[in-house]
Design brief:
By secondary structure, this protein is mainly alpha-helical. It contains 18 helices and 3 strands. A 3-stranded antiparallel β-sheet has the order 1-2-3. Helix 5 crosses helix 8 and helix 15 runs parallel beside helix 17. The chain binds acetyl coenzyme *A (ACO) and oxaloacetate ion. It comes from Agathobaculum faecis.
Length: about 450
């Protein structure tokens, strides 16, 4: 696989970019002057209310006399606390991601018969269309599995006999099919990456209709296709924790925006995958891993609080890390004192870290979690509480499960597909209006000049 060189003249590129910079400045004070809700946020940082949803609740603060009062985070799916859902599954010692998909998309927990039927349909839908892996994945492999997943999702439109109909029945059918196929697509795309970009062998295992999503992922990704029940159950819980997060998160809102135009399921979901890839959203789980790899290379004693604190200051100053100034895995738009998913993942990671020899790594992550809020507050003069988010510990859990880094964000998408489909169903049936916010126009009228009269 070779990339194509660019034929765009570099001198032209320089000139175009300089012109862009000259004509596209928007001073920050204009945002305040025109009361622009930058990032669709109110002045107090809360999100602008743009819709209503019965899907769940992301609860991170209480508004008291107009002020945000920090609280421990709580996440509910259709009214059920995500902790209670996982606790129930633990008690019955069974897989639950499919059931959570049912709950989110349909609105209520299934009976045993309904769940059996749902799982049977997922099993039958797992296989990709004939030659899909060869034509859509192997012929043009990508070093980024999220890009391949978005492309493959769009491509599935061509194989659907009824792709455009927006009835509940048709979208539900498409949701079950995508939920079933995502694990296969990301695993095959990963195998193609191994073969064509990493020079490794490729193992194209066949999905098993009788196994759960988590079991299929481990079976499809691992060269020998083997895994333990504990490993598969842990992955199942990770999928559940990533399944849904309100209508306002960037990728779900993307589904809302695209669905409101009346477009098809494949287009809306491909757009959501593309949004999730971003490093400030789901792509942060990969950045977290890179951030810790870099810290471990540059800090000789990982338990030295002073050295770790200095490094975090450098990251915030853009002198370390990826230069963005962001400490990945920290901060959240809604959660203040804690992200319940990070709390659950941390709890699951600790015993595994002890038994698999990752304790020092886990200690370092916990140290960063502990030090960042005060360092951030001091450097930025901010009094906003800051907590670890879902992406802080997920990478470590996946690493301990032997899953490859290039699948960390695709695993997020494989879980979030059920939330996205539920939002699509809700938007199509209850949204009722094309989403169309406004941008303050800042351009002044200019008199047109013919080509020969310009500079
Ligand atoms: C699945 C998920 O999407 S979870 C989030 C995963 N993302 C990350 O881990 C990336 C690091 N974190 C962040 O970039 C942010 O905390 C976000 C994107 C998650 C939330 O951003 P916001 O909603 O803007 O958070 P908030 O309003 O509290 O931010 C206030 C300021 O602090 C900055 N900030 C927040 N978190 C961080 C951080 N971890 N490192 C550095 N700066 C940060 C914001 O960029 C913002 O700066 P600005 O005022 O100059 O724009
Ligand atoms: O809610 C958000 O903004 C981001 C997030 O944590 C998610 O989508 O899981």
């Amino acid at each position: 696989m070779t990339t194509q060189p660019s034929f765009v003249n570099p001198v032209l590129l320089q000139e175009l970019s300089e012109s862009f910079r000259l004509h596209n400045q928007i001073p920050s004070d204009l945002y305040t002057r025109f009361r622009i809700k930058r990032g669709l946020r109110n002045a107090d940082g809360t999100g602008v209310l743009v819709g209503a949803s019965r899907l769940g609740n992301v609860h991170g603060y209480i508004l008291n006399e107009g002020e945000r009062e920090p609280i421990e985070g709580r996440l509910t799916y259709r009214g059920y606390n995500v902790y209670d859902l996982i606790h129930g599954l633990e008690q019955e010692d069974r897989f639950g991601f499919e059931e959570v998909g049912y709950l989110l998309m349909c609105g209520a927990l299934p009976t045993r018969r309904q769940l059996d039927e749902f799982q049977r349909s997922i099993g039958l839908e797992r296989a990709l269309p004939d030659n899909f892996t060869e034509d859509m994945i192997m012929r043009a492999p990508s070093r980024d599995i999220m890009n391949k997943l978005a492309g493959a999702t769009l491509a599935l439109y061509s194989y659907d006999p009824n792709p455009d109909e927006t009835t509940v029945e048709n979208i539900m059918r498409q949701g079950i099919s995508l939920m079933a196929k995502f694990p296969v697509i990301i695993s095959h795309a990963y195998q193609a990456k191994r073969r064509y970009f990493d020079g490794d062998s490729m193992f194209l295992h066949v999905p098993d209709p009788d196994r759960s999503t988590a079991e299929n992922i481990l079976h499809l990704v691992r060269p020998n296709g083997k895994y333990s029940d504990d490993e598969a159950k842990l992955l199942d819980r990770c999928l559940i924790l990533h399944a849904e997060h309100g209508g306002g998160n960037n990728s779900s809102f993307t589904v809302r925006v695209t669905s409101s135009s009346g477009t098809d399921t494949y287009s809306a979901i491909a757009a959501a995958v593309s949004a999730l890839k971003g490093p400030r959203h789901g792509g942060a789980n990969l950045r977290v891993v890179r951030q810790f790899e870099e810290m471990k290379e540059n800090i000789s004693d990982w338990t030295d609080e002073g050295a770790v604190a200095d490094y975090l200051c450098k990251i915030l100053d853009g002198e370390a890390g990826d230069g963005s100034g962001l400490i990945y895995g920290m901060g959240h738009a809604i959660y203040t004192l804690s992200d319940p998913r990070a709390v659950a993942l941390k709890k699951a990671a600790r015993p595994l870290a002890e038994s698999k020899g990752f304790s020092r790594e886990m200690d370092l992550i916990e140290l960063v979690e502990k030090l960042t809020p005060a360092i951030f507050a001091e450097k930025k003069g901010s009094d906003k509480p800051m907590c670890a988010n879902v992406d802080m510990y997920s990478g470590l859990v996946y690493k301990m499960l032997g899953l490859p880094k290039s699948l960390y964000t695709p695993l997020f998408a494989t879980a979030r597909i059920v939330g996205w489909m539920a939002h699509r169903l809700e938007e199509v049936t209850t949204g009722g209006k094309i989403i169309r916010p406004a941008y303050k126009p800042l351009c002044k009228s200019v008199v047109y000049k013919n080509l020969d009269e310009r500079g």
